[in-house]
């Protein structure tokens, strides 16, 4: 009770001290802001230093002139700005006249086109901004130099003895004023360019906003009856043939025209993104080269692993081209800032084809039918994009796609249910997602029949996107896991056991992490496919922007609180993941002794510190008073946190000095066991009786610790034996030594030997057999040797001593 009162008192003092110091720090900061600093005086140059400073000024003037020379990037912006402005204005007018008649696919093409304009001009804006900052900094430096030389001239006065110095100052002032005037002219020019750039960017943003508005209006029409029912064939045909021109283009002409337009857009896209396209090809080729190199090395290797992950890796490198193209295109697609629909569709087509070819080889061949149907539906959807969406043929395509996609999902679910061990980690997809998608596709069929064609097309496209992406993501996780195994396979010095342990770690740690990332990506793009992501994002942003103003320096928002929680949770997960990775047996055995737990401890400390700092920043807490907070914490440390800090510092000492390591057998405070973890505050040992003991790090540093396995695992064993007094000592010594030398667990060097201690108090002979063995085999070895000694003594007829006890009565003691 007394200790509890002392702790409460310490906590109260700590809280008051922290509150006082924190409040005092904020008040000091406010006073510092409100107090006006006195104007600093202009420095002057000593008379004797004027020649040297004049020479330095000559060098500065040359640097200023070089900096004021027109830059190529700025001149390029200035030269193309007029053309770009007129081109943008003309395209804006043309787009606004036809925007109401564009389909969703055409609107996406226009969006990408105008976003590319936006990105290009943003690059120009950044270049102009950098140039503006450089010239502004130069102008400030020149102004400061002018003030310094002017003050020096005023300080000298009109002394006739310093005529040369005054003339030198005047010359320097003239040069500096010319530089300043040129800088002002450059600033004026850059300001004009920046203003016009801003005007063009605003026009582009207006166009993009208008396109988004039209897309939202089209989304609102999903639940409208935009076409006649499918049984009203005459109505459908009349809609399909209704046109303002004199002649209706045939379906073949429409497809040909659409393909020509897409090819033209594709050529223009590659022309503007040529460097990115080359980088994409190089990335895929490097990935292919890696797989081919590992494939060649793997075939020459003698060792073979039987883990299922390695079998998948072998399958991947056996199909190097398909794996490299599929995964390479999936990753390199993010190299582009934005892609047009035709290029996006081309990428998806190739990736889906690779998935149809490779995924059955990694799972089960029965899934090929479902994946092939998904690819067929996607191709049909591409063809449908070139057909009049109001025509009967388009509706037949839509009906066919939804129907066979239902069949593909049903067959795929049967395969997943029949061979669940081949499709791990996707149970929720098999149980819940596929039935939901089947229901949506049935709704698509019904809405197409009754005349809600836009809604039918939207549902089919969204389900197709989600299902196809799910297959691609699942394949990517398997291929990425295989690539990691292939990278480790390149390390020829790793033993078979180390590789086996590494594969197990990848299966337990890495693959679940990759699967989690894949699920998150799939959810995001599924929401985008169902056009829910922006709505959800807007709603979440609205909730996150709710805030409370505590005072002028502290505003807390829902977003800040959630950001702090998320960052802190992610930090703890990363710290735990790092600890798990670096404390796994395979990595401990690969790295030098003690390095893995040391890296693990330091990684956890660094990650938690960075995460806590980022969390506070995200929460909107002013970190300028962090020094005052640490001051308050120092007061608390002085009262009640000594042991925590001691254990923390001791943990760092253990990390660097490494007196104990994971897997070591230690003995401390009459506790003996194996170290299972070395934490920031405490370490765990598992005793041989099965219990786990938590030992503060401070005890491991300050107390006596017996480490049985610090430098090696050799252990000296000693077996004490007694024989009767009539035994031959030489024969017993030879017998004992022979038994120990013949045991496989006993070291040959140093060789086992037997000591003879002569007669003991009971008149028997004492012997001690001494030998060296491994620490982990001590108990088994001792037991085997003791049993063999017993049998050998019995066979040789050497009697063991029989204890004799004599009871002495009181009468005998008196006599």
Query: How would a textbook summarize the main sheet?
Result: 5 strands, antiparallel
Total E-strand runs: 10
Give the overall silhouette.
flat
Helix count? Answer: 26
By helix and strand content, what is the structural category? Answer: alpha+beta
Strand order of the largest sheet: 6-5-4-3-7
> pLDDT average, as an integer?
77
Which descriptors would you attach to this protein?
alpha+beta, five-stranded antiparallel β-sheet, 815 residues, single chain
Short recap of the structure:
This protein has 815 residues and is an alpha+beta fold. The protein has 26 helices and 10 strands. β3 and β4 form a beta hairpin.
Description:
The chain is of the alpha+beta class and 815 residues long. It contains 26 helices and 10 strands. The strands form 3 sheets. A 5-stranded antiparallel β-sheet has the order 6-5-4-3-7. A 3-stranded antiparallel β-sheet has the order 8-10-9, with helices on one face. Helix 3 (72-98) runs parallel beside helix 5. The longest helix has 58 residues, at 163-220. It is flat and about 120 Å long. Mean pLDDT is 77; it is low at 1-39 and 238-249.
Secondary structure topology:
Layout: H1 2-34, H2 50-68, H3 72-98, H4 104-156, H5 163-220, H6 233-241, H7 251-272, H8 274-300, H9 308-318, H10 320-332, H11 341-362, H12 368-384, H13 392-418, H14 427-450, H15 453-489, H16 496-529, H17 533-544, E1 547-551, E2 554-557, H18 558-582, H19 585-590, H20 595-618, H21 626-639, H22 642-657, E3 665-668, E4 671-678, E5 682-687, E6 692-696, H23 697-702, E7 706-707, E8 714-723, H24 729-742, E9 753-759, E10 765-774, H25 778-796, H26 810-814
Antiparallel strand pairs: 1-2, 3-4, 3-7, 4-5, 5-6, 8-10, 9-10
Helix pairs in contact: 1-21, 2-5, 3-5, 4-5, 8-9, 8-10, 9-15, 10-11, 11-12, 11-15, 12-13, 12-15, 13-14, 13-15, 14-15, 15-16, 18-20, 20-22, 24-25
């Amino acid at each position: 009770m007394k200790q509890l009162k002392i702790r409460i008192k310490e906590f109260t003092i700590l809280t008051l001290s922290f509150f006082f110091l924190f409040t005092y720090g904020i008040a000091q900061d406010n006073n510092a802001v409100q107090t006006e600093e006195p104007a600093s005086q202009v420095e002057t140059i000593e008379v004797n230093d004027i020649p040297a400073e004049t020479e330095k000024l000559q060098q500065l003037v040359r640097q200023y002139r070089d900096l004021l020379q027109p830059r190529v990037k700025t001149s390029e912006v200035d030269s193309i700005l007029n053309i770009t402005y007129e081109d943008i204005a003309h395209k804006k007018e043309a787009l606004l006249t036809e925007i109401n008649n564009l389909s969703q696919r055409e609107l996406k093409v226009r969006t990408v086109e105008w976003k590319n304009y936006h990105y290009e001009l943003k690059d120009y804006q950044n270049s102009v901004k950098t140039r503006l900052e450089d010239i502004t900094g130069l102008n400030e430096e020149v102004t400061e130099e002018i003030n310094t030389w002017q003050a020096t001239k005023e300080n000298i006065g009109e002394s006739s003895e310093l005529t040369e110095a005054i003339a030198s100052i005047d010359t320097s002032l003239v040069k500096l004023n010319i530089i300043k005037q040129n800088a002002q002219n450059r600033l004026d020019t850059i300001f004009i360019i920046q203003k016009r750039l801003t005007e063009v960017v605003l026009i582009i943003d207006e166009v993009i906003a208008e396109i988004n508005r039209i897309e939202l209006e089209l989304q609102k029409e999903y639940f409208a009856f935009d076409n006649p029912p499918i049984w009203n064939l005459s109505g459908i045909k009349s809609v399909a043939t209704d046109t303002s021109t004199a002649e209706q283009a045939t379906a073949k002409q429409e497809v040909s025209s659409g393909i020509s337009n897409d090819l033209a857009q594709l050529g223009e896209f590659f022309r503007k993104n040529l460097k990115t396209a080359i980088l994409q090809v190089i990335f895929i080729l490097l990935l292919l080269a890696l797989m081919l190199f590992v494939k060649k090395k793997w075939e020459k290797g003698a060792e073979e692993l039987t883990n299922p992950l390695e079998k998948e890796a072998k399958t991947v490198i056996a199909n190097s081209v398909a794996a490299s193209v599929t995964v390479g295109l999936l990753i390199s697609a993010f190299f582009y800032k934005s892609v047009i629909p035709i290029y996006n569709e081309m990428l998806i087509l190739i990736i889906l084809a690779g998935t149809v070819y490779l995924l059955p080889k990694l799972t089960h061949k029965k899934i090929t039918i479902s994946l092939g149907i998904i690819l067929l539906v996607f191709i049909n959807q591409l063809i449908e994009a070139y057909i009049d969406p109001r025509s009967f043929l388009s509706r037949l395509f839509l009906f066919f796609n939804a129907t066979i996609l239902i069949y593909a999902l049903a067959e795929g679910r049967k395969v997943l249910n029949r061979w669940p061990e081949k499709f791990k980690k996707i149970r929720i997809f098999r149980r819940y997602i596929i039935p939901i998608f089947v229901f949506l596709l049935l709704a698509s069929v019904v809405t197409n029949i009754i005349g809600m064609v836009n809604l039918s097309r939207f549902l089919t496209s969204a389900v197709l996107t989600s299902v196809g992406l799910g297959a691609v993501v699942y394949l990517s996780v398997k291929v990425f896991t295989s690539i990691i195994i292939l990278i480790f396979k390149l390390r020829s010095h790793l033993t078979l056991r180390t590789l086996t342990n590494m594969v197990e770690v990848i299966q337990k740690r890495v693959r679940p992490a990759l699967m989690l990332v894949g699920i998150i990506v799939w959810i995001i793009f599924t929401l985008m496919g169902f056009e829910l992501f922006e709505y959800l994002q807007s709603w979440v942003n609205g909730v996150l922007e709710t805030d409370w103003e505590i005072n002028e320096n502290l505003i807390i928002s829902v977003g800040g609180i959630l950001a702090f929680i998320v960052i802190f949770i992610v930090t703890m997960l990363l710290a735990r993941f790092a600890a798990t990775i670096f404390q796994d047996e395979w990595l401990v055995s690969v790295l030098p002794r003690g390095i893995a737990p040391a890296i693990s401890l330091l990684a956890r400390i660094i990650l938690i510190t960075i995460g806590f700092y980022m969390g506070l920043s995200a929460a909107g807490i002013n970190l300028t008073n962090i020094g005052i907070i640490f001051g308050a914490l120092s007061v608390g440390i002085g009262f009640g946190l000594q042991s925590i800090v001691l254990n923390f510092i001791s943990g760092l000492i253990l990390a660097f000095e490494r007196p104990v390591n994971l897997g070591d057998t230690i003995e401390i405070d009459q506790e003996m066991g194996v170290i299972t973890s070395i934490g920031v505050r405490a370490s765990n040992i598992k005793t041989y009786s099965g219990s786990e003991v938590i030992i503060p790090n401070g005890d491991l540093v300050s107390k006596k610790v017996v480490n049985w396995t610090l430098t090696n695992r050799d252990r000296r064993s000693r077996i004490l034996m007694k024989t009767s007094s009539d035994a031959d000592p030489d024969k017993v010594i030879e017998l004992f030594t022979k038994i120990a030398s013949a045991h496989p667990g006993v070291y040959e060097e140093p060789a086992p030997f037997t000591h003879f201690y002569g007669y003991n108090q009971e008149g028997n002979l004492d012997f001690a057999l001494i030998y060296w063995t491994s620490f982990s085999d001590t108990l088994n070895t001792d037991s085997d040797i003791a049993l063999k000694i017993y049998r050998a003594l019995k066979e040789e007829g050497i009697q063991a001593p029989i204890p004799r006890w004599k009871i002495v009565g009181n009468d005998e003691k008196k006599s």
